[in-house]
């Protein structure tokens, strides 16, 4: 019975991985996600953590082992996009600059 419980917890650990996302102020947000989690899930976690409502201007970027930068695609699995092993490290970045920054509603967004 004990070995069955232990093997179940080991299997669940295989399905989870740690992610660290460097935020715009250079602080870090660390979380555990399911291995099959899509990019949108992680982005939503970060936006919730920051209480960020104007999401359209931001994205998550990562660097592959060949030092190439990529935007995390929200519709695809995070683990399949990353060409490295967990823990995964990524950065929240400004993806689009608004034509009229004064029209932004949130203080966190208007500081870009």
Task: Provide a compact summary of the structure.
29% of the residues lie in helices and 27% in strands.
Structure explained in plain terms:
The chain is 29% helix and 27% strand. The chain has 112 residues and is an alpha+beta fold. It has a domain at 17-94: Ubiquitin-like (UB roll), CATH 3.10.20.90. It has a 5-stranded mixed sheet. It is globular and about 45 Å long. The termini are far apart. The model is unreliable at 1-12 (pLDDT under 50).
The pLDDT mean sits at 82
The CATH topology of the domain at 17-94 corresponds to Ubiquitin-like (UB roll)
State the oligomer.
single chain
Strand segment tally: 5
Global shape: globular
Major β-sheet annotation: 5 strands, mixed
Task: From the alpha carbons, calculate the radius of gyration and give it in angstroms.
Answer: 17 Å
Helices and strands, in order, run as: HEEHEEHEH
Number of helices: 4
CATH superfamily of the domain at 17-94, by name, is: Phosphatidylinositol 3-kinase Catalytic Subunit, Chain A, domain 1
Distance between the termini: 55 Å
Helicity level: 25-40%
* CATH architecture group name of the domain at 17-94: Roll
Are there runs of 5+ residues with pLDDT below 50, and where?
Answer: 1-12
Strands of the largest sheet, in order across it?
Answer: 2-1-5-3-4
Beta-strand content bin: 25-35%
Structural class of the helices, strands and pairings? alpha+beta
GO biological process, one term: actomyosin structure organization
Protein name: FERM domain containing 5
Organism: Myripristis murdjan (pinecone soldierfish)
Pfam families: FERM_N
């Amino acid at each position: 019975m004990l070995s069955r419980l232990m093997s179940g917890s080991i299997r669940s650990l295989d399905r989870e991985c740690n992610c660290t996302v460097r935020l715009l102020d250079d602080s870090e947000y660390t979380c555990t996600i399911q291995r099959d989690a899509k990019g949108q899930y992680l982005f939503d976690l970060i936006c919730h953590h920051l209480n960020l409502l104007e999401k359209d201007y931001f994205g998550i970027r990562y660097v592959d082992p060949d030092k190439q930068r990529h935007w995390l695609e929200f519709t695809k699995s995070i683990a399949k996009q990353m060409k490295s092993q967990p823990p995964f490290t990524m950065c929240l970045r400004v993806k689009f600059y608004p034509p009229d920054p004064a029209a932004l509603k949130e203080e966190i967004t208007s500081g870009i």
